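Input sequence (123 aa), recorded before submission:
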Amino acid sequence: MRLLVLQTIITVSNYEYIFIFYFGQNASIHYEVRATGTLSTAPIDVGDHVPYGTVVAPGVLASYHQHLFSLRIDRALEGYKNSLVVEESVPMRFPHDANPFGVGYVAESSIIEKEPGLDLDHS
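Predicted structure, token format:
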């Protein structure tokens, strides 16, 4: 099988965003988004673990943050056996020991079973 690959790269601040469409001869469509760049990090006490980031080295925390993209596509193009996963950012309780500055959040994923109206309120 051959693929037609359409790709664009956009540089924004410390990231390069790579957007790729794969079109197959069998009418399949795959979409991929990649981000490369330098992590934004913060100091943390060695041995500490928090729910709002990943320890990337002793004493170095990479806080969770968002890269938001919008893509509209009919998921039935390839048939109805596809699935769509939506990942939402949910604020952590504040004030809380694990969220001392009120900026922490966790990500929750869910599979969309039917076409919904999604909450687009960015607040």
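Checked by second reader. Residues 53 and 64 are 5 Å apart (CA to CA).
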